[in-house]
Structure formats: structure tokens, C-alpha cells
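Exam prep: given the inputs below (a chain plus heme C), describe the expected output before reading on.
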Amino acid sequence: MKRGLLSIIALTALLVSSSAWAALSLDMQALLEKYRKEADVKSFSAEDGKKFFATKRMHSKGEERSCATCHTSDPRQKGKTVVGKVIEPMAQSANKERFTDPKKVEKWFKRNCEWVLERECTPKEKGDFILYMTSI
Ligand code: HEC
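Solution:
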């Protein structure tokens, strides 16, 4: 009983601490809550998300890659794929369609994390990334 009540309080604290959270659909809130539980953290960090986004990693193909390679160093700007196709901005403030569809989010995390990191992103990396993109 007591533990249930405490987790409700913790969740509420998380809800009100972030206006970004309030802007997310219920589906997206549920996805973030799932990541949060898997990551076993109290909350996510937009600061860590920012670093994660910009960090360049040496790929086994011998080139440096980061999320910013396609989404640019300012996610409020339009980006470009490796073949030069325009990518609409990743920041929710610049593109209302971002982070509205959990299926789309999961699909692209899978694909892009593999392309940059040669592995899937961790739940913590995903949560931090979304928090960053919904708070700038
Ligand atoms: C090789 C180019 C490329 C790189 C590098 C890249 N992305 Fe993307 N990303 C795309 C494209 C293309 C789309 C889909 C087109 C669109 O949604 O505008 C996309 C869409 C997404 C979406 C969907 C968001 C939504 O709700 O619409 C997420 C999440 C995402 N990327 C995360 C990442 C993360 C995390 C990284 C770094 C680990 C990353 N991307 C690196 C090209 C890239």
C-alpha cells in the first residue's frame, strides 16, 4: 500500500516538474515511463540528452558519426540524410509532429542508434534524448 502511494507521488512530481512532459501524448508518456523503469532512474536528464546527441563516435567503417551528423548540431534546424534528403527539425518546438507516435519513435531509434552506435540505444539514452528534444 505505502509503496504504491509513494510511487504515485514520485510520478506526480515527475509530471509537474516538466512542462515538456505535459505536452506529450498519453502514448508517449507511457513509452517514457517504460524507458524510465527499464533504466531504473528517477527522471531523465536533458543535459545528458544534449551530450548524447552531439557525441561523435568512431564507426567501424572508419568515420565519425553522431546523431547530429543528420539532425545537425542545432536540432531546431532542418537536417539532411547522407544522400542529401531534407529531414524536418527534431526539436518539438520546431516540429509539432515529433514524438507523437511511439511506433515511429521506436522504429527510428532502432535504425539510427544502429547506424551511429552499432548497437541499440539504452532506455536511459532514449529517455534523455526525448527530454532534450522536447525541452529546447
Ligand atoms: C543517417 C542519418 C541519421 C542519423 C545519423 C540519425 N538520424 Fe534520426 N532520423 C533520420 C531520419 C531520415 C528520420 C526519419 C525522417 C523524419 O522523421 O523526418 C529520423 C528520425 C528520428 C526519430 C523519430 C522522431 C519522431 O518522433 O519523429 C528519432 C527518435 C531519431 N531520429 C533519433 C535519432 C538518434 C537518437 C540518433 C543518434 C543516435 C539519430 N536519430 C541519428 C536520420 C538520422
